[in-house]
Write a structure and sequence with these properties.
The complex is a heterodimer of chains A (about 150) and B (about 220). Chain A has about 150 residues and is mainly alpha-helical. Chain A folds into 2 domains: about 30 residues; about 100 residues, Cytochrome C3 (Alpha-Beta Complex). Chain A has a 3-stranded antiparallel beta sheet. Chain A is globular and about 40 Å long. The termini of chain A are far apart. The radius of gyration of chain B is 27 Å and the shape is globular. Chain B has a 3-stranded antiparallel beta sheet with strand order 2-1-3. Chain B is built from 8 helices and 3 strands. Chain B is mainly alpha-helical. Among the domains of chain B are: about 30 residues; about 100 residues, Alpha-Beta Complex (Cytochrome C3). The relative contact order of chain B is 0.10. In chain B, strand 1 and strand 2 form a beta hairpin. The chains are: A mainly alpha (about 150), B mainly alpha (about 220).
Chain lengths: ~150, ~220
């Protein structure tokens, strides 16, 4: 009790801020080692327009959808080209029932008003397929960049 | 009075030390991440598989939607494992009925048009020959996904090499992006060189070639 009082008297608000920063600095050590390129295999970032209009880029998770649909549904019936960013998708098309809108219509899956479930990428993430062979072949230099070298 | 007031704050020297401590911690953590003599220097963090969206490096952790998304591990727990990619064997997952992905957007009862036709591609050098199975592919895909844009539907009419696959062409359009990655060599290079050779031309219609006569195409003829 006594000690607490003393500490309280010793440490004013600025000092508290310092303490918070010290804790943050220590904890940050645990986070720095998180690799920036460990996204789930097959996750596609779509960012032809999003960044430019101030929306987060879109992340499409293949693993989640292939549990529920065969490739054929999207890549033959719905006409998605096999190319990240290669479909010129926009919100008008989606609301009209094309592309993601063929399912995200409130019937097969939740509807377009849940913007943040699709627009969920960190701003600035470029269009790409995650953990792809090509991405991994160039990963070494990326990894060094990410770790600040 | 003045003295007592000052005592409520840490002495300046101590504050300096605290600031230094912060700087040191930040620098040390950066140094840990970039340890030049660490194991797995080039391909770090092999063990961190299927991270939840908020920790995967592409989802924005401050986006409220990110936290509503399903962590892959939750879904994959019940599925057969593989060595890389999603760490899921999607062929086994499908065949064992652990997943039942729709072949039609609306009707869960529509059955896929499966064609059972293996194409053997003889490989120069030591690697086992490649068996390309139409069966596992037509479970998931439509003929038009490959023919004719990626492959001319004629045995031997396509030049395929490992270099092209690694660049994301031919088999690499899907393998290394969504279907199992190129690192699983033996799943493609599955026919040992000692096995009896296929008939000249190398096309091996599989034993139970159940020709459901896929629409329009003269399959397996």
């Amino acid at each position: 009790m006594k000690k607490k009082m003393k500490l309280h008297r010793l440490v004013d608000r600025t000092d508290l801020k310092l303490l918070v920063w010290m804790t943050f600095a220590l904890v940050s050590g645990a986070f720095v080692t998180v690799d920036v390129t460990r996204a789930e295999y097959g996750d596609v970032v779509i960012n032809n327009y999003s960044d430019d209009v101030g929306m987060r880029p879109v992340i499409f998770p293949h693993w989640f959808h292939r549990v529920r649909f065969r490739c054929k549904v999207c890549h033959a019936d719905l006409g998605f080209q096999l190319k990240a960013g290669g479909n010129d998708i926009n919100m008008v098309k989606i609301i009209e029932g094309q592309y993601c809108g063929a399912c995200h219509n409130g019937e097969i899956a939740w509807s377009v008003e849940h913007c943040n479930l699709c627009h969920s990428a960190t701003p600035g993430t470029p269009t790409q397929v995650h953990e792809s062979t090509l991405q991994k072949l160039v990963a070494p230099s990326d990894a060094r960049k990410a770790s600040g070298k | 009075m003045k003295f007592a007031h000052d005592r409520r704050r840490l002495p300046m020297s101590l504050r300096g030390i605290a600031a230094l401590f912060i700087a040191a911690c930040v620098m040390a953590s950066a140094a840990i991440a970039a340890d030049p003599n660490a194991f797995n220097r080039l391909m770090p963090n092999q063990s961190k598989r299927n991270p939840p969206p908020a920790e995967d490096g592409i989802h924005d952790p401050v986006n409220d939607g990110t936290l509503m998304l399903q962590p892959p591990k939750e879904a994959f727990g019940v599925l057969p494992k593989s060595a890389s990619g999603n760490y899921v064997d999607w062929v086994k997952a499908l065949n064992s009925g652990k997943i039942a992905p729709r072949y039609d957007r609306l009707d869960p009862k529509v059955e896929p048009i499966v064609m059972d036709l293996d194409i053997v591609r003889e490989v120069k050098g030591s690697m086992p020959d490649v068996v390309y199975p139409h069966k596992q592919h037509t479970e998931w895909l439509d003929c038009s996904n490959c023919h004719p844009a990626i492959f001319i539907p004629q045995k031997g009419a396509n030049q395929i090499s490992m270099a092209a696959i690694l660049l994301g062409e031919k088999c690499g359009v899907c393998h290394g992006k969504v279907a199992f990655p190129v690192s699983q060599c033996i799943r493609c290079h599955s026919r040992p060189k000692t096995a009896p050779k296929a008939a000249e031309g190398g096309v091996q219609p599989a034993a139970n070639a159940q020709s459901k006569s896929p629409k329009g195409v003269n399959a397996g003829k």
